[in-house]
Design brief:
The protein is mainly beta. It is 4% helix and 60% strand. Among the domains are: 35-148, Lipopolysaccharide (LPS) transport protein A like domain (lipopolysaccharide transport protein A fold, Sandwich); 344-511, Lipopolysaccharide (LPS) transport protein A like domain (lipopolysaccharide transport protein A fold, Sandwich), CATH 2.60.450.10. It has a 36-stranded antiparallel sheet that branches. The longest helix is centred in the first third of the chain and has 11 residues, at 4-14. It is rod-shaped.
Length: 540
């Protein structure tokens, strides 16, 4: 019976059905042909059972091969049954004519296809060199691992860290712990970094700083092309340029050409001039020293105690004659400008600030409010001194209105007005050309005495506590005084009177809420008639 059992077993194995089932049940690893380490050459071979009965001791010009990988060393312990060996002295591994691995010692496991190389290790993959003291090379996955500090060099950059790996097929290196990527044009410091030596693209996957010239970039996620020096960054990255910072949800940064784009929750800050720009899109040009912001664009000046918030569709700032003694800066805000500060509010269609004379010019239906006063005209020029309002020049169709109550308004109109400020408050007015005045004098108990109407060529108005305190009128002026109960209805308001409090910005948040005056209420620019030139016929 015992002799019959092997016969039955052999018969079952030979049956077609049985063998098919067995093959189908094998794993890929089981069906894969086993690869062996082959000893190709050694000068001398000896055995030492006292040392290791399984080891072949090989000395002199030792060569091994496993598949396409050739391995060289001065001496080795070869374990044929284990399909492995230990190599010593001048260790070299070669695969094709592109991949070379050098070291002092090598422990190679032919079953796992895994190499451990130690001391003065160099992995050369075409133009890429990895240097370390301890490297594990997984030939199945084409990965080289180091864990005792390593340096990866290619034609442009040097990458360093304490831990990392390099894939000889994908050409991707993953470095961790105190990562440094250095190039003559930049320095990158990170906690974790992926770097493709074929594309020269660094993938940022952790807190990372990139230093280039005077600029610094901070990001936790994104891509940086070390060849073009272009970065695509996400998750609130920041660009630092001296005293200026630029932050956005996502960003494109071209360090070589000196410009950047930001998308989403833009913040562009100037800590020296104490102002910042916000919006949903921004373009920053370092060469031209310009900034372009749109989509809920907002400029904030916090250089004074009273911060000013200016909103428009688009805000654009640019410097001219950069790097010269005649450098100056223009700031433009256009389409639906609204400004708010605690002491001053304004609206207009567009404005331009020129640093040469520190003047901000407001165009098309400009209106300013200071307390309970309103200023308007065809063009308003606001002159600044130390970032604070010094004086204001209103040109053509000028109108000053001071609201006393719901029915009474002090009013002054003329061809030109000059308003002088002190500590953010209106102190004096000069009105020039075709002056008309409606004024309510009051007695000591703040009771209206009556209503004065006056016409003059010019006048000076002095303010106190944000109210008209005194009006100085030349002798050639004409005026009429009316008691309060005898005021003519048609004399209570000047011809161009308007009180636009309903379009006035009420807060820094309200600057985003545009409220127009209405087409019929817009200020029409008065075109002056051309003076006819004299005929030259009489001179012929």
């Amino acid at each position: 019976m015992q002799r019959f059992i092997p016969f039955i077993f052999l018969l079952l194995v030979s049956l077609p059905g049985f063998s098919q089932v067995k093959l189908l049940g094998r794993t890929p690893a089981e069906t894969k042909k086993k690869s062996y380490v082959h000893l190709l050459h050694t000068d001398r071979t000896r055995f030492d059972s006292a040392f290791d009965p399984e080891a072949w001791i090989l000395v002199g010009n030792v060569r091994f091969r496993r598949d396409s990988m050739y391995m060289y060393c001065d001496s080795a312990h070869y374990y044929q049954k284990r399909n492995s060996f230990q190599a010593f002295g001048n260790v070299r591994m070669e695969q094709g004519d592109t991949l070379f691995l050098y070291g002092a010692n090598l422990d190679f496991d032919g079953v796992a296809n895994y190499a451990k190389v130690r001391n003065n290790v160099r992995l050369i993959d075409k133009n890429t060199i990895l240097e370390t003291d301890s490297l594990d090379y997984d030939r199945n996955n084409n990965l080289g691992y180091f864990f005792e500090y390593g340096v990866l060099r290619d034609e442009t950059s040097s990458l360093k860290s304490y831990y990392g790996d390099y894939n000889t097929v994908t050409k991707v290196a993953v470095f961790k712990d105190d990562v440094t990527l250095e190039n003559p044009k930049f320095l990158l410091l990170s906690d974790t970094l992926r770097y493709n030596t074929k594309t020269n693209i660094a993938t940022i996957v952790g807190p990372t700083n990139i230093y280039s010239g005077n600029n610094e970039v901070y990001s936790e996620h994104g891509h940086y092309n070390t060849s073009t020096r272009q970065a695509r960054l996400v998750d609130r990255s920041t660009l630092y340029n001296g005293y200026r910072t630029f932050t956005a949800d996502s960003m494109f940064y071209d360090s070589g050409n000196g410009f950047s784009e930001g998308f989403g929750n833009i913040v562009f800050s100037d800590t020296v001039n104490r102002n910042l720009l916000t919006g949903e899109y921004a373009f920053i040009d370092e060469v031209k020293d310009s900034a372009y912001v749109t989509r809920r664009a907002l400029a904030i000046d916090y250089s004074q105690r009273d911060s000013v918030f200016v909103h428009s569709d688009t805000i654009w700032a640019v410097s001219y004659n950069v790097d010269t003694d005649s450098v100056y800066r223009l700031v433009k805000a256009y389409n639906k400008v609204r400004a708010w500060g605690k002491s001053l509010q304004a609206v207009c269609d567009s404005l331009v600030y020129d640093s040469r004379d520190s003047c901000m010019t407001m165009y098309k239906d400009p209106i300013l409010w200071n307390g309970n006063t309103q200023l308007l005209g065809e063009v308003v020029k606001v002159y600044l001194k130390d970032s604070a309002i010094d004086w204001v020049n209103v040109i053509n169709q000028t109108l000053y209105v001071e609201q006393l109550d719901s029915a009474c308004y002090n009013q002054i109109k003329g061809q030109e007005m000059k308003y002088f400020f002190s500590e953010g408050e209106l102190r004096e007015m000069q009105v020039i050309g075709s002056v008309e005045i409606v004024f309510y004098p009051i007695d000591s108990d703040s009771t209206y005495i009556g209503m004065n109407t006056t016409t003059a060529g010019k006048t000076n108005v002095y303010m106190k506590d944000k109210k008209v305190n005194k009006i100085v009128i030349p002798n050639e002026s004409k005026g009429v005084f009316y008691p309060m109960d005898q005021r003519p209805v048609d004399k209570r308001f000047l011809e161009n009177f308007a009180w636009f409090d309903f379009v006035r910005p009420l807060s820094k948040e309200d600057v985003f809420n545009w409220r127009g005056k209405g087409v019929d209420m817009e200020l029409k620019v008065v075109k002056k008639d051309k003076i006819p030139l004299p005929s030259l016929d009489r001179f012929k």
